[in-house]
Amino acid sequence: MSSKVPRILVTGASGLLGRAVIKIFKQKNFDVIGLAFSRAGPGLVKCDLTDHEAVTTLIERERPDFIIHAAAERFPDMVESRYEETCLLNIRTAGHIAAVAYRIGSRIIHISTDYVFDGKSPPYKADAVCNPLSKYGSTKLESEKAVLAVAPNACILRIPVLYGPVERLGESAVTCLLDVLKSKKPQSVSHHDQRCPAHVDDIANILADMVALIMKGANLSGIYQWSGREKMTKYDMILAMSRVFSLPHQHISPSHAASPIRPYDPEMDVSGLTDLGIAHHTKFEDGIKECLARWI
Ligand SMILES: NC(=O)c1ccc[n+]([C@@H]2O[C@H](COP(=O)([O-])OP(=O)(O)OC[C@H]3O[C@@H](n4cnc5c(N)ncnc54)[C@H](OP(=O)(O)O)[C@@H]3O)[C@@H](O)[C@H]2O)c1
Question: Residue of the nearest CA to atom 21 in ligand 1?
Answer without folding.
Answer: 15
